[in-house]
Q: What sequence folds into this?
């Protein structure tokens, strides 16, 4: 079952760009899709580094869109949870590797390999959009191996 995106739909757009692959950015659909393409305007991405520049508008394939995920306020976050972390204006999939003081967490990102300290308010449980439904992903064992290899270098 495909989701029916229309003009005005609030969505997240998956990046396929090198170095940003897998991150999702919040946007609004500007026109009804035509030939499985639609135009979106991003909430946080700009056309340039100039603080007065307009928000980035882009034509994207509908396969890169998903609806906004359900809110997960109040859900507990713990070590080894698969999460999305709001970082660099987008939602990046990662894994909690350490719980720190003051409601902060160390999050590991696989692509590109990186670790960041993220506040609890900038975390949500990772969900995947498949067949018109939100579902929790299977545990990703490669994160554990990646963390080990990342720390070796």
A:
């Amino acid at each position: 079952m495909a989701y029916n995106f229309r003009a005005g739909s609030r969505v997240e757009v998956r990046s396929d760009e090198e170095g940003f692959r897998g991150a999702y950015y919040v946007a609004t659909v500007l026109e009804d899709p035509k030939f499985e393409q639609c135009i979106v305007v991003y909430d946080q991405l700009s056309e340039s580094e100039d603080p007065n520049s307009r928000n980035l508008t882009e034509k994207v394939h509908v396969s890169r869109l998903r609806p906004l995920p359900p809110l997960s306020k109040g859900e507990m976050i713990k070590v080894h949870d698969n999460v999305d972390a709001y970082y660099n204006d987008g939602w990046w999939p990662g894994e909690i590797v350490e719980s720190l003081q003051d409601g902060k967490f160390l999050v590991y990102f696989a692509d590109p390999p990186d670790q960041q300290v993220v506040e609890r308010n900038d975390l949500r449980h990772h969900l995947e959009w498949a067949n018109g439904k939100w579902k929790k992903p299977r545990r990703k064992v490669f994160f554990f191996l990646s963390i080990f290899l990342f720390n070796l270098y």
